[in-house]
Amino acid sequence: MKQLSELWFPHRTPSVGASVRLFCFPFSGGNASAYGTLTRALPTNIDVCAIQLPGRGGRLREAPVAQITQLVSMLADGLAQHLDHPYAFFGHSMGALIAFELTRELRRRGRPLPLHLFASACAAPNILDRDQTHKLSDDQLIERLRALGGTSDEVLACRELMAMIIPVMRADAAISEGYEYQAQAPLSIPITAFCGLMDEKAPQAQMEVWQQHTTRTFHMNMVPGGHMFLLAEELDVVAAAVGQALDATCVH
Fold first, then answer.
1. pTM given for the model
2. Does domain 4-128+184-251 have CATH number 3.40.50.300?
3. Which one is catalytic: 93, 120, 137, 176?
4. 93 an active-site residue?
């Protein structure tokens, strides 16, 4: 039986002497391995914990979670023992929404909050579009994946692989599309946003609204690429911004 921490972040290699932990939450249909490039690009003083959600990777036998309130509660319980060290949250697309709501859940529980929230390729929670991706047919979902990019034609053409991916995609889509924003006090932590220069799904104007959700500093970083820039081979711009932000936060 694997330890709970192995289930939530199976690819973690604890960095000796790390000054901060960075919990990374995946995009819709993604898994922990999507953060491999960013992990390698970040400074070694950052202990990267890429989150593996139920229904993917080594958790394939678990049913994917389709409700954000349930998922956030599971994460708050599952990560509780790992919040005893300075930490931050990074989320790409759906992952940014999860990171935001998890931060608010931890605030409700009176737990230490992350030092910083990094929101990548996700419109601010209070203006998310009400798409209906989770209701699409399997073939339509495959075409939606093809349009977003980041999934090879070989994978899209493999029915066996898609049979495993589609239920996760559908559940993840339901998380975002079933999300109901509840107005609360802004977070008392800095927020940094990353927006793809060619991202039509989460354009700059929609991402700048993240500024409304913090009483601290807000920064916007424009990154080459579209919505799935996280899967690019070079993420130096993102890694540098994350490293600098965490250095500044840890100093203070």
1. 0.89
2. no
3. 93
4. yes
